[in-house]
């Protein structure tokens, strides 16, 4: 997943469940997720060459996984912009 440089990605993310995550590139094709308040690893989001993602962990539910993957891939920002234009 090289669509965006890490400098363009959020370094922190607040999920709708109120969980805060720090996002770190893991040097491979994924990103480590860390909860700074609980001080624990929350798993990883891995991407393949086609931009598909998979969650490698057990602590986030499906909705939290989708939020984290969307923020990393940039799709969440695009969806937020789309929703804003639809509300107008």
Report what the structure shows.
The protein is of the alpha+beta class and 88 residues long. It has one domain (6-87). Helix content is 28%, strand content 31%. The protein has helices spanning 62-73, 75-87; strands spanning 12-14, 20-25, 30-35, 40-47, 53-56. It has a five-stranded antiparallel β-sheet, with helices on one face.
In short:
The chain has helices spanning 62-73, 75-87, and strands spanning 12-14, 20-25, 30-35, 40-47, 53-56. The protein is α+β, with helices and mostly antiparallel strands and 88 residues long. The relative contact order is 0.19.
Order of helices and strands: EEEEEHH
Total DSSP helices: 2
Percentage of residues assigned to helices:
25-40%
Main structural class: alpha+beta
- Count of DSSP E strands? 5
- The overall average pLDDT, rounded, is 82
Instruction: Give the spatial strand order of the biggest sheet.
Output: 1-2-3-4-5
As a percent range, the share of strand residues is 25-35%
What's the overall geometry? Answer: globular
Main pleated-sheet profile:
5 strands, antiparallel
Low-confidence stretches: 1-6
Radius of gyration: 13 Å
Write down the domain tally.
1
End-to-end Cα distance:
33 Å
